[in-house]
């Protein structure tokens, strides 16, 4: 089943291929003159491995932003004595003329070139090298492959501006391609004579002429005894076309579908045309008539239509002409036609817009070559996922992932696909998804964020990330996801909602992670970015979620990470702290976050002298009386002061306020707190608190530390008792009870 399939590990072959491609130098290759990749001389690889290396390479370049393409990659396969290629699939900008040229000695059996816009007529000549072995060839969307550069003879002034002109090659044909059976010329450039091009081919089995306008297709009858598959998507048809098609009696797959939005079509499908196909094309197992308008009613009376169990038997077909079929079709394309909504359709698989099954069939059938149709199908899926419940969740997810990977630069697909992903990954579907599948979703989402600065895509991607457990599920892409989010937050013009989600994600990413992660993110400019956001909000005099999350994120990222605490001070963090306190005196949540952060700064001995000013100490002392957020603000202010007191009287380099006066205020604050307070704080380690126990220089700091431990272990024993034992707190408390300098109430609490 799909569930099991999606959860099984990658094959060893796939893992090895991936590893070798990411480490070519350390595995198959060495670097010649520090620049050219060369295969080690003792390596001999069969086509099963070489094909996979090339096809996976293309996939990695296309979908993995971190993967670096190599100039000389294809030259590794130039010698058939050490590497054999047979079936390769190349796409888009990745392939250039010199790459095909490099592998011209290979005996290729199958060569798919999809949307390779950089290929020119030089590659047509290279194709001739494969003519004696090639069985399958696709030139789909290779719009420049019939163009060559022509140098004008007499060089006038024009030469400097336009030294070369693009000229259409007229004399190329498939002469000598004696084994070629399967050919895709989809979206071929206008002006090429298709008939002349194809005439030399003896026995074609499959031909795709998508998007090509031909008024006369009579020449197709030369293959009437061999042609089993014909695709004429978006070709403007006429009665002549239909008569020719009806003669191709061996056809098993016929696709005359169209994109109903693309242009005006005169041709309308009629009952007679469908009858003609059913009568003459007796081997037909697959037919696609998506996007067509039916000129007359092809359906049976509606009373009869609604009767009985849904059936795929031709005899019960709601579409009258299909009652003549010998057996149900394997596939029937009815996307964006009225026929897909009928009850009895004589096909095992139907593409359409009636229900989830039909929509998924459409996405599956059209993703590779018809993004314009696919984006509309994904839009329908988005509605199903949003309003109803998806019953084929895994299939839906995998199809959307494939579409997003395949069309990384297609804005419509990125917008609809990223929106669908949001609904397909939310919590109600969570149980059905494997780790591997959820990781694939994250990869595609991050690809989308990298390729598109477009607001809708960015928002959809950020929202989708919120469906994951953070930081755990994003850990495997930790650096990359942080860089992308900081990039969003550093843009000068920002969408409010994206800013809010991105700050929320940043905050979640630095919560409960290891210190090396926090240091790495700090070095990426995290602290600076948050302070800039706070600065902006302060200038606008707004204290919203972005403001609060930014302080919260700073609190998290400075936890036991001295480098980040230092950055906070260096980038005028204290100035912003005071300004926020003054501008928003009533915002309790804000005060708690700011003081939590300053607690982290105060734990770093080297930074404490920077907090030693009359202004700061005065502010902290006043906050001891704060009732904001229960005891949290008062507790954190007292924590900051406890660390400062711990440095002793000689470190107190100010006249106002007096050290004794502050100590007195600290005692009365601690005595006013309820020892059973439930807390809004999360300790990963007690180390900063425990270091205040074995000392006699500041009894009040000792008391604050003991109070903190007592409160946490009594209110949350399951969480904090083990932590206290693990970090060696028990002997420290026992020793403290014996100390003469410790206050009696501190000893009681410790006991």
Automatic annotation (TrEMBL):
Which part of the chain is the Protein zer-1 homolog-like C-terminal domain? Answer: 404-750
Q: Which UniProt keywords apply?
A: Acetylation, Leucine-rich repeat, Repeat, Ubl conjugation pathway
Keyword Acetylation listed? The answer is yes
Record Pfam families = LRR_Zer-1 (PF25013), ZER1-like_2nd (PF22964)
What residue stretches are annotated with the Zer-1-like leucine-rich repeats region domain? 196-337
Tell whether Chaperone is among the UniProt keywords.
no
- Any single Gene Ontology cellular-component annotation: Cul2-RING ubiquitin ligase complex
Q: Which domain of life is it from?
A: Eukaryota
The family classification in the record reads: Belongs to the zyg-11 family.
**What is the protein's quaternary organization?**
Interacts with the ELOC-ELOB/Elongin BC complex. Part of an E3 ubiquitin ligase complex including ZER1, CUL2 and Elongin BC.
Name the PANTHER family for this protein. PROTEIN ZER-1 HOMOLOG, PTHR12904
Write the protein's name: Protein zer-1 homolog
UniProt source species: Todus mexicanus
State the organism's lineage.
Eukaryota, Metazoa, Chordata, Craniata, Vertebrata
């Amino acid at each position: 089943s799909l569930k099991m399939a999606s959860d099984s590990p990658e094959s060893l072959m796939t893992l090895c291929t991936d590893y070798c491609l990411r480490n070519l130098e350390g595995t198959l290759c060495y670097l010649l003159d520090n620049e050219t990749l060369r295969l080690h001389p003792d390596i001999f690889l069969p086509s099963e491995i070489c094909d996979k290396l090339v096809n996976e390479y293309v996939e990695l370049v296309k979908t993995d932003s971190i993967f670096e393409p190599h100039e000389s990659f294809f030259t590794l396969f130039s010698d058939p004595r050490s590497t054999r290629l047979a079936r390769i699939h190349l796409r888009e900008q990745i392939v250039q003329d010199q790459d095909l040229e490099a592998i011209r000695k290979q005996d290729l059996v199958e060569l798919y070139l999809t949307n390779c816009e950089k290929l020119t007529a030089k590659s047509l000549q290279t194709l001739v090298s494969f003519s004696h072995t090639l069985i399958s060839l696709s030139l789909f969307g290779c719009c420049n492959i019939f163009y060559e550069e022509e140098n004008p003879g007499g060089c006038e002034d024009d030469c400097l501006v336009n030294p070369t002109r693009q000229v259409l090659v007229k004399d190329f044909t498939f002469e000598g391609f004696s084994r070629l059976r399967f050919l895709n010329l989809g979206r071929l450039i206008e002006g090429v004579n298709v008939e002349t091009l194809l005439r030399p081919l003896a026995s074609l089995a499959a031909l795709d002429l998508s998007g090509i306008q031909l008024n006369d297709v009579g020449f197709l009858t030369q293959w009437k005894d061999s042609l089993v598959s014909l695709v004429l998507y978006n070709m403007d048809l006429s009665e002549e076309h239909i008569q020719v098609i009806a003669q191709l009696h061996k056809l098993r797959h016929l696709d005359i579908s169209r994109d109903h939005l693309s242009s005006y079509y005169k041709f309308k499908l009629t009952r007679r045309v469908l009858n003609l196909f059913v009568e003459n094309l007796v081997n037909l197992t697959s037919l696609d008539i998506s996007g067509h308008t039916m000129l007359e009613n092809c359906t049976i009376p509606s009373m009869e239509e609604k009767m009985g169990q849904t059936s795929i038997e031709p005899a019960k077909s709601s579409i009258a002409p299909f009652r003549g079929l010998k057996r149900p079709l394997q596939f029937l394309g009815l996307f964006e036609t009225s026929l897909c909504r009928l009850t009895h359709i004589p096909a095992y698989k139907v593409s359409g817009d009636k229900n989830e099954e039909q929509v998924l069939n459409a996405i599956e059938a059209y993703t590779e070559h018809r993004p314009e149709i696919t984006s509309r199908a994904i839009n329908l899926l988005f509605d199903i996922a949003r309003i109803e419940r998806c019953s084929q969740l895994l299939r839906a997810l995998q199809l959307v992932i494939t579409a997003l990977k395949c069309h990384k630069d297609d804005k419509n697909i990125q917008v609809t696909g990223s929106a669908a992903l949001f609904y397909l990954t939310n919590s109600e579907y969570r149980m059905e998804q494997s780790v591997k599948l959820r990781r694939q979703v994250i990869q595609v989402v991050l690809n989308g964020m990298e390729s598109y600065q477009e607001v809708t895509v960015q928002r959809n991607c950020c929202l989708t990330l919120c469906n994951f457990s953070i930081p755990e599920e994003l850990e495997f892409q930790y650096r990359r996801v942080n860089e992308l989010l900081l990039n969003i937050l550093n843009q000068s013009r920002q969408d409010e909602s994206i800013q809010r989600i991105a700050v929320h994600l940043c905050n979640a990413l630095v919560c409960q992670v290891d210190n090396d992660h926090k240091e790495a993110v700090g070095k990426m400019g995290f602290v600076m970015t948050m302070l800039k956001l706070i600065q902006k909000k302060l200038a606008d005099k707004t204290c919203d979620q972005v403001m609060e999350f930014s302080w919260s994120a700073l609190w998290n990222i400075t936890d036991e990470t001295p480098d980040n605490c230092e950055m906070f001070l260096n980038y005028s963090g204290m100035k912003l702290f005071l300004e926020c306190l003054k501008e928003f005196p009533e915002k309790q949540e804000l005060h708690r976050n700011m003081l939590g952060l300053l607690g982290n700064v105060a734990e770093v001995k080297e930074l404490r002298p920077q907090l030693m000013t009359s202004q700061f100490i005065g502010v902290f002392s006043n906050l001891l009386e704060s009732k904001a957020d229960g005891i949290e603000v008062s507790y954190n202010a007292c924590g900051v002061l406890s660390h400062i007191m711990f440095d002793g009287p000689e470190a107190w380099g100010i006249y106002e306020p007096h050290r004794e006066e502050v100590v007195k205020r600290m005692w009365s604050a601690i005595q006013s707190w309820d020892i059973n307070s439930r807390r809004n704080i999360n300790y990963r380690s007690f180390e900063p608190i425990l270091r205040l126990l074995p000392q006699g220089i500041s009894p009040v700091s000792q008391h604050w530390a003991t109070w903190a431990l007592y409160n946490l272990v009594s209110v949350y024993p399951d969480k904090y008792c083990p932590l206290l034992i693990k970090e060696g707190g028990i002997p420290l408390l026992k020793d403290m009870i014996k100390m003469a300098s410790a206050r009696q109430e501190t000893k009681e609490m410790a006991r």
